[in-house]
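Thread: Newbie trying to understand structure tokens

Hi all, I'm a second-year student working on a class project, and my supervisor (Dr. K.) asked me to get a predicted structure for one chain before our next meeting. I've only ever worked with sequences, so writing a 3D structure as a token string is new to me. If someone could post the tokens and maybe explain what I'm looking at, I'd be very grateful. Here's the chain:
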Amino acid sequence: MAIKSVSIRIEEEMLNKIAYVADYEGRSVNSHVLVLIRENIKSFEEKNGLIDGNINPAINVKPTRK
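---
Reply by user tm_fold:
Sure, no problem. This is what the structure looks like when written as tokens:
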């Protein structure tokens, strides 16, 4: 699977807060955002059915250190 890069615009306060949460969870901001995306996809699929494709969202994220 190819790893793609995406850029987002985010307010500084929101970035600081997500960085705080990510650090608390023992992750980088990037890894934490991937966790949030995975959770969103899982929730969507539970409500609307599976999305077609061979996507393995468990790749490329460090587990929490809690």
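A couple of things are worth pointing out once you decode it. The helical segments are 12-24, 29-48. DSSP finds two helices and no strands in the chain. Feel free to ask follow-ups in this thread.
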